[in-house]
Amino acid sequence: MSAALVTLCFLLRDGVAGQEVLLGRKKTGFGVGKVVGVGGHVEAGERAPEAACREVQEEIHVHVAEHDLVTAGTVDFVFPARPEWNMFTTVYLSERWAGEPRESEEIAPQWYPVQKLPVQHMWADAEHWLPAMISGERIAVRVVLAADNENVAEVHSEAWSRLP
Q1: Whole-model pTM?
Q2: Residue 115 domain boundaries
Q3: Most CB atoms within 10 A, among 5, 23, 138, 158?
Q4: Listed residue (120, 102, 122, 119) closest to 110, CA to CA
Q5: CB–CB of 131/114 below 8 Å?
Q6: What is the pLDDT of residues 17-47, one digit of tens each?
C-alpha cells in the first residue's frame, strides 16, 4: 500500500515575544482535537506546492503564493498498525501571505511562540521535527508510529541534500 501524498504549510511571523507559527486545532476528520499544521492531501493532477496553497486558502482563508513557499523538508509517516494511514508529507514554511487567518469548518487557527510549541496537544511526532524545520534545518524525516497509532516508536532524520 503506497502512502498518501500530503502537504503542510507553517506560516511564520515576528510577534511581540519573538517568532510565532500558525497552527490550528483540528475540528473534523483525521486528528480531530489535536493542534496541527495547515495542510492536506495532494489531489490528482496537483503538485505539492499547489496543494499547500489550496489547503491554506481552504482551511484558514489566506492566500499564499507558490513563490513564497520555502520547502522545509519531508516527513514520511508510517503507521504499522494502520498502513492505510501512511502519509508522505512535504513541509513548507512561508513568511508572506495575503489576508488574516480565520477559522473554517476544519480548523481553528492560533498563533504560538516558536519557542513554546503546544506539543502536549499535537501529534507525538511533531516535537521531533517541527522545531528543526522552523529553525532552518532542511531535513527528511521518517516517523514510525507505535501500535497505538499515537506514540512514536522510531524517528530517523537526515539532511535533505536536494534543497539549497
Answers
A1: 0.93
A2: 7-72+93-138
A3: 23
A4: 102
A5: yes
A6: 899 999 999 999 888 999 999 999 999 999 9
